[in-house]
Specification:
With about 90 residues, the protein is mostly helical. The protein is built from 5 helices and no strands. About 55% of the residues lie in helices and about 0% in strands.
């Protein structure tokens, strides 16, 4: 026996499914990202630091900082060969 879904039955099923899905979504949407914002705020040690330290002039110039970054990147990508020290012990 073959059963077919009638239009009123399909509309009723769609209404029931939509009602279940729509009940929690506005609450979730209203709080979306709340935990991330709380964790970020908890990790900031001094929220006023950017405004309080705005007048401080850095003690290095751009060339020095760039050279240090280049040296660090080069040392990371091309580390020097390791040195093996033989202490004369048995192998």
């Amino acid at each position: 026996m073959r059963r077919t879904l009638t239009l009123p039955g399909a509309l009723a099923a769609a209404a029931l499914a939509a009602g279940c899905a729509a009940s929690a979504s506005p609450q979730w949407d209203a709080r979306f990202g709340e935990n991330a914002r709380i964790l970020r705020a908890q990790q900031v040690a001094d929220p006023a630091a950017p405004t309080r330290n705005a007048q401080i002039v850095p003690s290095t110039d751009g060339r020095t900082v760039r050279a240090a970054l280049d040296h660090q990147a080069d040392a990371t990508h091309n580390p020097p060969p390791s040195t093996v020290v033989d202490t004369g012990g048995s192998h």
